[in-house]
Amino acid sequence: MARKIAVVAVHGIGSFDRRPSDSATLSFSADLERLVRSRVEERLPGAFASDVAWREVFYADITEENQNAYFSRVKRQLNFDRLREFAIKNLGDAAAYHTARGDPNHDVYRRIHERCAETLQALEDDTFEAAPLVVLAHSMGGHVMSNHIWDRQSDARLSVARVSSCNTIASFVTFGCNIPLFTFAYSYDQIFPIADPGSGLPDHLRPRRWWLNVYDKDDVLGYPLANLGAGYKKLKDAGALADRQINAGGWLTSWNPLSHNGYWRDSDFVDEVAKILVRLLKQV
């Protein structure tokens, strides 16, 4: 029996364990899924297990191929190996991810978005083609999914309401989001966000606030979005975009830059995601 709601989690910059063999085998989002499941089941017993399909977009193995090869060649030739590895695997992700039209050797962007498309198609198969989709995108994953949605919205062939077309998105949740770092080639008036990605949903499943951006002020890689550009301000003024500041992480991480990885288990963030799913489960 098809499930009613699709959830896709997308990781950000950094180093991760080996890619699971299937997008339904959870890795980086396993703790978040477990905690959200518990909160939802408290409100709606049995609903999460029967009605929610949760999958991951895992792309770290794509960006780390050349990073690992280079680091192995320079390892122990320089000082601060561990710090340099951290820099390579974090800054290197952002550097590797860009479009390079006309360069046949540069296909990182294409390969990452193939992963996005594969996972969304699998979620569509898990649910039904026009099921409401919740996107949970961390760090650079917010930029990846924003691009993926933008590309889908620019393709007239994908106008049919489908999970894989990214036009049944009921909630786009970014956290520790660094979209601003990818926009500095443009002025304030030239920066525009994606359009409402819920055009394929019935009106009762389309919330006024469809983009929730969660950040911690101690997280140097996570930023508010409402003041990024003219288009983002327009979204915020219309009530479609909300920036939410939380104190992510535990007592060792919540007060410093390590909070960037604290969202996945943070109680406040778990509550935000659970509320979104409870609302949808009551409406579908």
UniProtKB/TrEMBL annotation:
InterPro entries: AB_hydrolase_fold. It comes from the Bacteria. This is Alpha/beta hydrolase. It comes from Nitratireductor mangrovi.
